[in-house]
Specification:
Blueprint lengths: L14 H18 L3 E2 L5 E3 H7 L5 H6 L2 E3 L1 H4 L6 E4 L4 H10 L8 E10 L11 E10 L9 H17 L5 E7 L3 H15 L8 H9 L13 H5 L10 H17 L4 E2 L11 E9 L7 E7 L3 H4 L7 E7 H8 L12 E5 L5 H13 L4 E3 L6 H11 L3 E5 L1 H6 L1 E6 L5 E5 L3 H6 L1
Helix pairs in contact: 1-6, 6-10
The structure holds adenosine monophosphate.
Length: about 425
């Protein structure tokens, strides 16, 4: 038997209604903040990710789905293709390709699948979904301003609150400018030199090639060593320090609570200055519901002009998991189950269904071959509020038996009054 590939999964009803509810709610919030949707391809040239996310990151070094494209293998350019492991690189590639700096500050959002070959477990999949946004543009459009960082963070707080997720924690850090980071990496390399032999294989490699990535390490034995390493906050230059302070000041003024986590460096190389994560207790081990940060040098790294930006990606799978308990009420059940009763009643029942749906009622339609008992069972199982019986006598009288399935009350209602009765 053929089954879904390990780490991928089917989303079935009624869960899909929760996904739609989440997506409708976030689109509403994006509209209020004037973000517009962008859609980029789900696969790109491999080089896009190695140049942006970074060669030494777990994502690029271990987790990408990469293949040689047969059709392009004959040519010398870009024959290696990769399923996108994240969407920021694709958005910045599109920004450069379509010269989007002409539009000033671009406020863009996306919703879609991403692919990483991670060890599957609850809350971690190989095909997962992200809802993300990017504010990117030329420096003259204000793209570098701490006001953009704070606006994005405040929008995220609004978004989570709107979805009924109130007990989130915002963890904030500054990972500095490329210059700050170079000095920090140097200090880390020195600090790691005498201790790296006691660390895991990945960290021994990182200690030489990209010491910052040591902070991504999850190996318990390495944590006491990592705890004693220098922190990026000691290496921030005046510019980074002032920028970070300004972000915090706005957040405090607008009333978005946060805490500083000086270990937070995010698992991607392109971040500069502000970096953040929102966590949620209900999620357990995989408790990061979203992450993001500023990426001021990313466009240049991909051959574009200076285009500072800041963005985030929410794990939609985890977001849906967080609201599952509270949001069952958003799943709309049928208002009415129409039960045709006896030969020749399918047609008048269909006519009634059409009329009621035109009045925005959610209608489930049965079949004339069902006995009344089976119709009642089906209506109850579907969670319908009412059952409407369409028998020969009812059709003749043009008035129908309407029974409230919760209270048990049954009345006869004329065709013209049905919609009002059912929805009132
Ligand atoms: P990242 O930028 O890698 O931190 O990803 C942003 C968010 O996407 C995370 O905070 C998670 O909520 C979600 N995410 C990342 N990887 C996975 C995965 N393999 N399965 C499910 N969600 C994920």
């Amino acid at each position: 038997m053929i089954k879904a590939v390990r780490g991928t999964r089917d989303l079935l009803p009624p869960d899909t209604a929760l996904w739609n509810f989440v997506e409708a709610a976030v689109r509403d919030v994006f509209r209020a903040y004037n973000f517009q949707e962008i859609r980029t391809p789900i696969f790109e040239e491999t080089a896009l990710f190695s140049r942006s996310v970074g060669e030494e990151t777990d994502i690029v070094s271990k987790e990408m789905y990469t293949w040689e494209d047969r059709g392009r293998a004959a040519s010398d350019k870009g024959q290696s293709l990769t399923l996108r492991p994240e969407n920021t690189a694709g958005v910045v590639r599109a920004y450069i390709e379509h010269k989007m700096w002409d539009r000033g500050l671009n406020k863009l959002y996306y919703i879609g699948p991403q692919f990483r070959r991670e060890r599957p477990q609850k809350g971690r999949y190989r095909q997962f979904y992200q809802i993300g946004a990017e504010a990117i543009g030329p420096p003259s459009a204000g793209s570098e301003s701490p006001a953009r960082d704070a606006e994005i963070l405040e929008m995220l707080a609004t978004l989570l609150d709107r979805l009924g997720i109130t007990d989130w924690n915002l963890e904030l850090n500054s990972v500095g400018s490329p210059g700050d980071r170079a000095r920090f990496n140097e200090a880390l390399r020195k600090a790691l030199e005498p201790v790296k032999d006691k660390m895991c294989g990945d960290c021994q490699r990182r200690a030489v090639t990209n010491p910052l990535r040591v902070f991504d390490c999850k190996v318990p034995g390495d944590q006491p060593i990592i705890e004693k390493l220098p922190r990026i906050s000691q290496f921030l230059g005046d510019d980074s320090r002032e920028h970070f302070a300004a972000v915090q000041q706005i957040l405090t003024t607008v009333g978005v609570p946060f805490s500083i986590n000086s270990r937070l460096v995010r698992g991607l190389d392109y971040y500069t200055r502000t970096a953040f994560e929102f966590t949620h207790g209900a999620l357990g081990a995989q408790n990061a519901i979203l992450g993001g940060g500023r990426y001021d040098g990313l466009s240049e790294a991909l051959g574009g002009p200076s285009a500072p930006g800041i963005g985030f990606a929410i794990g939609e799978d985890r977001l849906v998991m967080s609201i599952k308990e509270t949001a069952e009420s958003v799943l709309r059940k049928p208002d009415v189950y129409i039960a045709p009763l006896g030969t020749g009643t399918n047609a008048p029942a269909a006519r009634l269904a059409r009329e009621l749906r035109q009045h925005d009622a959610v209608v489930e339609l049965g079949d004339e071959s069902f006995r009344l008992k089976k119709s009642f069972e089906t209506a109850t199982k579907a969670g319908a509020k009412y059952i409407l019986i369409v028998g020969e006598n009812e059709v003749k009288a043009d008035a129908f038996a309407l029974k409230n399935l919760t209270s048990g009350e049954q009345i006869s209602v004329a065709r013209g009054e049905l919609a009002e009765k059912i929805q009132g």
